[in-house]
Amino acid sequence: MSAAVGGLALMVVLGGTTFVLAKGGMSHEDRIAAALQSSELFAVLVSGSLLGAVATALGFGTYRRMPTRISREEAIAGAVLGLQAALSGLVLLWFVHGDMERFARNFLSFEQIVPHSEAFLRGAGNTLVLAGAGELFGVILGLVLSLFTMSRRAVVRAPARVYINLFRGTPLLLQLSLIYFGLALGLGVNMSAYTAAILAFSLNTGAYSAEVFRAGIQSIERGQMEAARGLGLGYMQSMRYVVVPQAVRRVIPPLMNEFVILIKDTSLIAFLGLSYAQRDLFSVGSQGYSQYFNATFYVAAGLGYLVVTLPLIRLVNWAEKRMRSGIPGVGG
């Protein structure tokens, strides 16, 4: 009972708010402000909050009297859903009592974005290129470094550890600055901001990927290496044909997660002074804000990052489930 009430309450708050906004129209800031200040939205939020409070009271109140574990879990689920609905409704009620006209004018003026849609699309493409190139070269570098860090020879292992600790222990923004400005001013090595960004992302990703690969390789059962050596394979042959292929399968989800993080980190290149054709999503948003002094451009950039990253996050979650179900001893 409480689960149904809690689900209904959350649907009223979230679905009702979406319906009221869609009904009022999202094409102009005045319509958005009017929808946010409407009596319909107020009624929706109050109703949803009250339903949420009822579901919370029902869930926690009947939990101990439920005869089975399943019914107790349903009671807790209803209470949690109701609590989420009540808190969401109250927060939205507090929010809409502010100056919605000013908020919509500064953050939801999407009609100003339409003429710049091509720039945002180009920025999304540049973001993916920067992150994709950085991830590709970084993964290759990380695999090599991971093998070095597991060497029995200190002269091989030590430089790799120094490199990894150096790039993991310093901010990516500092690394971008040193590569782009430091090489040009200190050594006279001039490169475009785009090239410098890819180089910095690759070197930084290589350090993190090395640790991911090292953990993946060390998670392979020791008997795999021993069996390969027993068949007459050398150390490097055993790593190449037996251990590393199995490790790669295990490290795919964390490497994909690193790629998602790198997509967001591409916003750091905004200070390098990219050309119009090289701007990433955040740079496009920053340029629009500096031109119109309207934060809607930042909102659009944020939505662009979500469009790019959310499918990848779903893919990471799916891959993690596949890895857990296909690897003995991993997961449930």
UniProtKB/TrEMBL annotation:
InterPro entries: AA_ABC_transptr_permease_3TM, ArtM/GltK/GlnP/TcyL/YhdX-like, MetI-like, MetI-like_sf. One of its GO terms (cellular component) is ATP-binding cassette (ABC) transporter complex. GO terms for biological process: amino acid transport. Its main location: membrane. Residues 124-316 form the ABC transmembrane type-1 domain. The chain crosses the membrane at residues 41-63, 75-96, 128-150, 162-185, 297-316. It is found in: Cell inner membrane; Cell membrane. Gene3D superfamilies: MetI-like. It is a multi-pass membrane protein. Keywords: Amino-acid transport, Cell membrane, Membrane, Transmembrane, Transmembrane helix, Transport. GO terms for molecular function: transmembrane transporter activity. Belongs to the binding-protein-dependent transport system permease family. HisMQ subfamily. Part of the binding-protein-dependent transport system for glutamine; probably responsible for the translocation of the substrate across the membrane. This is ABC transporter permease subunit.
